[in-house]
Write a structure and sequence with these properties.
15% strand, alpha/beta, eight-stranded parallel β-sheet, 273 residues, TIM Barrel, single chain, 11 helices
C-alpha cells in the first residue's frame, strides 16, 4: 500500500463555494480559480486518496466570520467532516455551544494574517473554549508565538499550532518562536500540524529545506501529537500544488508505521473521529 491509498485523516483543509455561499464584500482577499473547491468536490477527492475524514477550517479569506459554507459541509458530510470555525473575539458561550453541536470542535486564531493586536483581548474567549473542551487553533509565523504564549500560560485550553509554526527558515532552528513551539511539544500541551510547507519554504517543492524543522517537531512533540494536513485547496500558494505530489513528500520522509500514526491515528484521537 502506498501513501496515496493508505487510510488518512486530513487535519487542515478548506471549502470555498462562492456560487452558493457568497464571499463577504468587506474581506480584502477573495479566493478564485483553483483556490476554490466545494464540499461535494472535496468528498470526491477524499475518495480518490484514501482520506476517511477531514478537519475543515473556516478561511479568513473570502468568508471571515461567516461560517455558512463550513456548516453546510459539516451537515452534508455524514460524519466525514469536523470543523474549526472563525468567530468574533467576543463570541458568547452559547454561540460556541451551538457551533459545537453542529460539529465544530475548535476556533481558529490567525495572528499571521490579522496581527497580534487583533487578538489582544482573547483570554475570555480562550476560557470559554476551555470550558467547552474545544480547541484553540493558532496560525503564527516567525516569532509571533512569543506574543501568544502569555495567554496560553494563563488558560489551560487545548492548543493546536498550524503549519509547523511557519518559521523563518533563514533564521535557523534556534529562532525564538520555533524554540517556544518545540518547548510546547516537550511539555505535551499542544498538537502541531505538519503541513503548509509552501507557506514558509524558501526552496519550494519538494521542500528539502523544511525537513530539518519537521524532524525537530516530530522529535519534540512525538508523532502522537503531530497531525498531517494537506492545506487544500492551497489558498495563496505561490505556485501550483496538487494533492498527490504533496502526499509523496510524506512518503519520502516517513515510513509506513510513522505515516499511519501521523496521517491517521493522531487526528482520529485528537479530533474524535
Amino acid at each position: 500500500m502506498s501513501v496515496l491509498t493508505e487510510p488518512k485523516i486530513d487535519g487542515h483543509c478548506h471549502v470555498l463555494d462562492p456560487a452558493k455561499f457568497p464571499y463577504n464584500p468587506n474581506v480584502a482577499y477573495h479566493p478564485a480559480g483553483q483556490e476554490m473547491g466545494n464540499a461535494e468536490y472535496f468528498l470526491e477527492l477524499m475518495g480518490c486518496y484514501g482520506v476517511k475524514h477531514a478537519l475543515l477550517v473556516g478561511p479568513n479569506s473570502g468568508y471571515a466570520t461567516d461560517n455558512s459554507c463550513l456548516l453546510h459541509a459539516l451537515n452534508i458530510g455524514q460524519g466525514a467532516f469536523k470543523g474549526i470555525a472563525v468567530v468574533p473575539n467576543d463570541c458568547s458561550f452559547e454561540q460556541l455551544e451551538a457551533l459545537k453541536a453542529q460539529g465544530v470542535i475548535g476556533i481558529a486564531f490567525n495572528p499571521a494574517l490579522m496581527g497580534f493586536d487583533y487578538y489582544a483581548n482573547i483570554e475570555p474567549l480562550l476560557k470559554r473554549l476551555q470550558q467547552l473542551d474545544m480547541w484553540a487553533q493558532f496560525q503564527v509565523e516567525k516569532d509571533l508565538l512569543q506574543d501568544v504564549m502569555p495567554f496560553l500560560s494563563k488558560v489551560d485550553v487545548k492548543v493546536m499550532i498550524d503549519h509547523c509554526g511557519r518559521p523563518l527558515l533563514s533564521s535557523g532552528l534556534h529562532q525564538k518562536g520555533f524554540e517556544h513551539l518545540l518547548a510546547m511539544g516537550r511539555d505535551g500541551r499542544a498538537v502541531v500540524k505538519i503541513s503548509g510547507f509552501a507557506k514558509f519554504s524558501e526552496t519550494g517543492f519538494p521542500f528539502d529545506d523544511v525537513k530539518a524543522y519537521v524532524d525537530a517537531l516530530t522529535q519534540s512533540f512525538g508523532l502522537s501529537h503531530c497531525v498531517w494536513a494537506s492545506d487544500w485547496p492551497y489558498l495563496r500558494a505561490p505556485y501550483r500544488l496538487d494533492y498527490g505530489p504533496m502526499l509523496r513528500v510524506y512518503e519520502q520522509w516517513f515510513n509506513a508505521d510513522e505515516r499511519h500514526q501521523l496521517m491517521y491515528l493522531s487526528a482520529k484521537h485528537h479530533f474524535g473521529f
